[in-house]
Design goal:
The structure holds two protein chains of two kinds. By secondary structure, chain A is of the alpha/beta class. Chain A has six helices and 14 strands. Chain A has helices spanning 13-21, 32-37, 49-58, 62-70, 80-83, 189-200; strands spanning 2-5, 26-29, 40-43, 75-78, 86-89, 95-96, 101-107, 119-124, 126-127, 142-147, 149-153, 159-164, 168-175, 178-181. In chain A, the strands form three sheets. Chain A has an eight-stranded mixed sheet, sandwiched between helices. A four-stranded mixed sheet of chain A has the order 6-5-7-11, covered by helices on one side. A two-stranded antiparallel ribbon of chain A has the order 8-10. The longest helix of chain A is centred in the C-terminal third of the chain and has 12 residues, at 189-200. Chain A starts with a strand and ends with a helix. Chain B has an eight-stranded parallel beta barrel, surrounded by seven helices. Chain B is globular. Chain B is an alpha/beta fold. Chain B has ten helices and eleven strands. Chain B has one domain (7-243): Aldolase class I (TIM Barrel, Alpha-Beta Barrel). Classes of the chains: A alpha/beta, B alpha/beta.
Chain lengths: 204, 251
């Protein structure tokens, strides 16, 4: 059973549907006990980092998720959920993240010029490190991005994949059982479903 | 590199797709769920659904269809038609839409753009506009392109971006239905002044028109309706042809 963590941010309909499609048992929940007993966790998220971090903290789930991940439960952060894995974000001020991936989240507009922001659409993956959730994915496969901020890894071993948008932009991160994708696997067609499939196979 | 997107647009009325022809291996062509799955399997990068029903029952049916599409198709979905209030945004987002396209609703009350962007994020808000030349100027028309407004299209595009629209759909009334190619001149005028993604609409009649579009204007996507529905152009063939021309596409 995969627990999709519901902390009042965004619409989880597509994510739930995509897990149904690949035959992975899942539940949308904010119940601490259900989360503790789940075989794997997905942390979704859209909107602003500060607002989401606050909601996650107010839900009382931030500490639980962090501890479960550190104890070895597979965790996948998607989009803003990936950014929340980092130590801090500079989106409208400075905000604390979960600190599971070393580095910070910064604005794309500080780093690139002459390209449209948000970075919206299909872009290709280029792998920097091996990672189990991409075992069915090929170099150059396209996935769907929508974001204006991006994670900067301080530990290069945690950078799994980048995409080219004026520079190499972090597309996926990992540290052991902890994974994050800046793109939306649930909106990335068959490529995305294969990534979710590989993640679901890690559920204990 | 970011790929150029190819987007079929489906008009839905009373639960059925309005335009359509019989594709090989697809009998029920006016079933929105089946057609959406078919386009997705052919390589469509995104789908736009326009609700052209007016009745309450039709709207309910549309919501049910969206849900069924969202359960079966895993590419981005944009929904438009009859979007006038934040409640309308809420209704279609809950059914699985990723982006909501507002057109006449924003002309009636332009504050909806910023209110929706604040509530749902810029990436959710698509400003769709129907544009026609009037006395040498690009003017915005409302009500499906029937009623002329005094809004200048270039200024309207800028207003949209400045107030939180994350994307623009720009439809040329002058080229729509003519199948003689996209309105390059008008699209250039819009793309020159905004820094958000622009989807070109109106005029696609064949593969050569998409090549002409992407080679001449910095748009992000080309939208087509009848060109795809009547099987005049196959999305796979179109994308292969674009790739051959050196245009980045997802294959």
């Amino acid at each position: 059973m995969i627990a999709i963590i519901d902390y009042g941010v965004g619409n989880l309909f597509s994510l739930k549907s995509s897990l149904n499609k690949i035959g992975a048992d899942s539940v949308v929940t904010s119940d601490k006990e259900v989360i503790e007993n789940a075989g794997a966790l997905i942390l979704p998220g859209v909107g602003a980092f500060g607002d989401a971090a606050q909601k996650l903290s107010e839900s009382g789930l931030a500490g639980t998720i962090k501890q479960l991940a550190l104890d070895g439960k597979p965790l996948l952060g998607i989009c803003l959920g990936m950014q929340l894995l980092f130590e801090r974000s500079f989106e409208y001020g400075v905000h604390e993240g979960l600190g599971l991936i070393e580095g910070s989240v910064k604005s794309l507009s500080e780093y690139i010029s002459g390209l449209k922001i948000p970075h919206m659409g299909w872009n290709s993956l280029h792998f920097e490190n091996k990672c189990p959730i991409f075992k069915y994915t090929n170099e150059g496969d396209y996935v769907y991005f929508v974001h204006s901020y991006f994670g900067i890894c301080e530990n290069k071993d945690e950078l799994v994949a980048v995409t080219d948008y004026g520079m190499p932009v972090t597309a996926a991160v990992a540290r052991g059982n902890i994974f994050g994708t800046q793109f939306h696997p649930e909106k990335s067609g068959d490529t995305g479903l294969k990534i979710l499939k590989a993640f679901s196979e890690l559920a204990r | 590199m970011l790929a150029k997107r190819i987007i079929p647009c489906l008009d839905v009325k009373d639960g059925r797709v309005v335009k359509g022809k019989n594709f090989e291996g697809l009998k029920d062509v006016d079933d929105p769920v089946k057609l959406a799955s078919y386009y997705s399997s052919c390589g469509a990068d995104e789908l736009v659904f326009y609700d052209i029903t007016a009745s309450f029952e039709g709207r309910k049916l549309f919501s049910d269809i969206l849900k069924r599409v969202g359960e079966n198709v895993f590419i981005p979905l944009t929904v438009g038609g009859g979007i006038n209030t934040l409640e309308d945004f809420d209704r279609v987002l809950k059914c699985g839409a990723d982006k909501v396209s507002v057109n006449s609703g924003a002309i009636k009350d332009r504050s909806i753009i910023s209110r929706a962007a604040k509530k749902y994020g810029n990436q959710c808000v698509v400003l769709s506009m129907d544009v026609k030349r009037v006395d040498g100027k690009f003017k915005v028309f409302s009500h499906g392109g029937r009623i002329e407004t005094d809004i200048d299209a270039v200024e309207w595009a800028q207003f949209g971006e400045n107030n939180g629209a994350g994307e623009l759909v720009v439809n040329s009334i002058d080229t729509d239905g003519v199948k003689g190619g996209f309105d390059i001149e008008m699209l250039k005028a819009i793309c020159d002044v905004v820094n958000i993604p622009v989807i070109a609409s109106g005029g696609a009649g064949g593969i050569e028109h998409f090549i002409e579009l992407f080679e001449n204007v910095n748009v992000d996507a080309g939208l087509g309706a009848s060109i795809f529905h009547y099987g005049e152009t196959d999305i796979k063939e179109l994308k292969n042809a674009l790739k051959k021309e050196g245009i980045e596409v997802r294959i």
